[in-house]
Amino acid sequence: MTDLPETETQAAAELEALAAEIAHHNRLYHTEDAPEISDADYDALIRRNAALEAAFPHLVRADSPSRQVGAAPAGHLAKVAHARPMMSLDNAFSDEEVAEFVARVRRFLRLADDEPVALTAETKIDGLSCSLRYEDRRLVQALTRGDGQVGEDVTENVRTIADIPATLPPEAPAVFEIRGEVYMAKADFAALNRRLADEAEASGKAARQFANPRNAAAGSLRQKDAGVTASRPLRFFAHGWGEVSALPAGTQNGVVAALQHWGLPIAEGFTRADTVEAAIAAYRAIEARRADLPFDIDGVVYKVDRLDWQQRLGQVARAPRWAIAHKFPAQQAQTTLNAIDIQVGRTGKLTPVARLEPVTVGGVVVTNATLHNADEIARLGVRPGDRVVLQRAGDVIPQIVDNLSRDDSRPPWPFPTHCPECGSAAEREPGEVDWRCSGGLICPAQRVERLRHFVSRHALDIDGLGITNIESFFRDGLIQTPADIFRLTEETLLARERWAEVSARNLIAAIDARRAPPLDRFLFALGIRHVGEVTARDLARRWTSWAGLMAMIDQGIALRDATPAAIGESDDKHLARLAKALAAVVDTKQVGPEVALALIDFFAEPHNRAAVDDLLSQVSPADLVWQTRESAVSGQTLVFTGKLETLSRDEAKAQAEALGARVAGSVSAKTDLVIAGADAGSKLKKAADLGVRVIDEATWNGLVAGTVTLD
Ligand code: ZN
Asked: In terms of pLDDT, which residue wins out, 558 or 464?
């Protein structure tokens, strides 16, 4: 911080750059609620600006960040793990999908056709999810949703929201986490933006405006200074719960009634529906009133009313099986397509993006829309200058659905034959719709995207290493591969412009904190084609350790090398045959041939292998530890056979996995326990031959309930 510029010209230039950079981060943080640098880095910029202004007081700019009262954002909000994960919801877009949801519930629970499945229906508020923890009936902690596992501590901020009671009445249980939505009413949102505009005008600065009520609520709640939150008109609706010591009722409807009785606001329109038809009627009624409601909603959430059924249904990936969000239809608008740009993704995929004349769709200003691929451009027949119809549904990226200037006598827009970033030829594999840059690791766009993916929130999640830093480190040759991130030192950072000791130390600490990443995150971070977050988790659960996973992969590579095309076999046929054989090696239920092929291909590529080996000299992926209940069957291999009376196979398997057991399809010497339903045939005989213990379904149910033990 002592290295001040030597000349006034240099100082003025740096102050100008700082003003622009800080304004940029203010906008990301406040308006878009999407900061790309850590609070520590942000603070370093502010301090650098202050030091320069102290040394060159006559150079202080009219738009200096130091003159912007209240513009400084939160600083660090502490991160805290949720006692119970905060889940997201699956979506339905049609009545048929809602009916299918209920049918799935029936199948899972094996309900008779005439057994009613009562649902609750409630408005889906476009707000910021929060978990409020009450201990001994006093509010002790409030967390944002965060990534569902870890949230941000906003306790003091939440205390300023009048809708949220500081205490619960005596009848409430000792521990109760209330979950709901912090939101801003439409009228309050408009008034806030007006106020910000007036304040900006009075001080002669550019107005800071929130894009929509959701962003305004998020930006207002996530403030380090709770005084700022208090000045913002935030409200709250309760809709669920997390960890509780007791529940006041056996149904969703009953608990919601209790919450209301305890003084928590419940969104208007909450109702119970005994049939699918009644639930959809509730949806239609809410949809008809949508424009008149004082707050923004984007759909209706249905939940299975019986809590014992919710318990049995459990969850899959990040969403519960017992709830679904029925989204309202997309909103549309017309605008002009100004240009088509090509973006290069981390796998080299060339994605055309439409640059649009700004237009408001469903309350949000849209300037870009994805055009997906060359086929989509041809299908729409779009060229720059055309009038197009834009559609936006919920959080989905806006799409162009129609071209009003369509004229098929014009030649189609020429899709580029070369990567705009590195000039390598664009390629399209047979049967694929996407063009890809063939530059691989020489393509800077792909390399930066891979690095950015590597540190992103659901991958290694390295705090403070946002896109700005990644790009500048990459440009300056400091980071070329993921492994290089772990070779950064405080000294290298301090040698760079605008790095202070605190921010350098913080970033190195954040990097060091990720030297033993969970196996699934590590796998996802590698950016293997088709290996998304869920697939990475499935693979990690199946193979549990890096060593186990690599043993399997080496087996796959050996098989790949030993499976050449047969004489006269087409490339497509050969690949399909190979992929199927590899899926058997990968041996993970949810992983199909295409994904198995991509996984093995990735590790068979020498430069990928070298990059991973280099990375492993810096980090050690941690074995996957199941979040399970210790039980008599933990670590055992179970086989279910015959016709189960009270359970579907899916539920039985979910129960077994929750107890730490693995479920196999056939009885072998490795089987520890067989659960036999009615009419169990050959498997039962085989179990008897091998001396494997067999229990009936009732005993299994007792085991799950904890009322029966195996000796
Ligand atoms: Zn390229």
From this structure: 558
